[in-house]
Amino acid sequence: xxxxxxxxxxxxxxxxxxxxxxxxxxxxxxxxxxxxxxxxxxxxxxxxxxxxxxxxxxxxxxxxxxxxxxxxxxxxxxxxxxxxxxxxxxxxxxxxxxxxxxxxxxxxxxxxxxxxxxxxxxxxxxxxxxxxxxxxxxxxxxxxxxxxxxxxxxxxxxxxxxxxxxxxxxxxxxxxxxxxxxxxxxxxxxxxxxxxxxxxxxxxxxxxxxxxxxxxxxxxxxxxxxxxxxxxxxxxxxxxxxxxxxxxxxxxxxxxxxxxxxxxxxxxxxxxxxxxxxxxxxxxxxxxxxxxxxxxxxxxxxxxxxxxxxxxxxxxxxxxxxxxxxxxxxxxxxxxxxxxxxxxxxxxxxxxxxxxxxxxxxxxxxxxxxxxxxx
Length: 375
Hints:
Number of domains: 2
Oligomer: single chain
Helix content: 25-40%
Strand order of the largest sheet: 3-2-1-4-5-6-7
Strand content: 15-25%
Structural class: alpha/beta
Radius of gyration: 21 Å
Shape: globular
Order of helices and strands: EHEHEHEHEHEHHEHHEHEHEHEHEEHH
CATH architecture of the largest domain: 3-Layer(aba) Sandwich
CATH topology of the largest domain: Rossmann fold
CATH class of the largest domain: Alpha Beta
């Protein structure tokens, strides 16, 4: 490897394909100039039921991977030591931190590496510290002074930057869009190919509703079931696809709710899929009532695939790239959502403008960000 490469250590929660941070890093990694930039990834040791679906991809493409303990009240010194060793081993010039809560511990680790000047980017991916009140208070306290620790502030949306990084983001922060390969979701497939997928899923001529996201309280999947329960009353020839993986507790709660409403034959749990782009092509409507989102990458993907979207007002306005998305307050309740979904006609002329999410255009912004930090 060339000594002239800029070496970046990304620190993120996990390498699950349901983790938006990991998806964004993968998208940028695929397009970045690997003759000039080298990525290493450090991530938490997660709970046993969280898959690490991107490990093989990054390993096979020359990324150094490091694990460290999930932070708790008792192990802060251990985590700082682990991060110090990871920074030394990665020999990085820049740390790109995708989890602002860790800023204090990362900064401590940087100071431990005394023989090297390392720049710190702090990147916000959410608009809320946690869906749990206790964790939210703790994480908010841990993020105090976060903007002062960074050499550069980035966020996936203006709201995420403001909520997680403070008012300083308005002055010095910039948006790093959750860019992707637009062609992957705009691509058309043959009727035969889509019919084969429908047959695999035992679908015929039903109206297909879809929800994509990790099984987590933030994603509000129980409310998706409530909405679909009200939809099915007026549209019995409908089916709901759940795409995504998560903790067993949340998954079991959702499955039990489906059973309680006698919807087992109408709801399909597909787990993690590598063909989300194709699944969107056989779907009519995306239901996405998250409690909060930094952006909501799935909304961009669905609009590119020309799937009508209904999202909560907890999703930033940056997720609107077309005339086929509606935002509804969660306070309206499931029946209002269901009626709105059933009554809204899909526009005959679909207009999509996704230039700012085009990875081929946005990767140069990230490359320049890294270069300018080291000038």
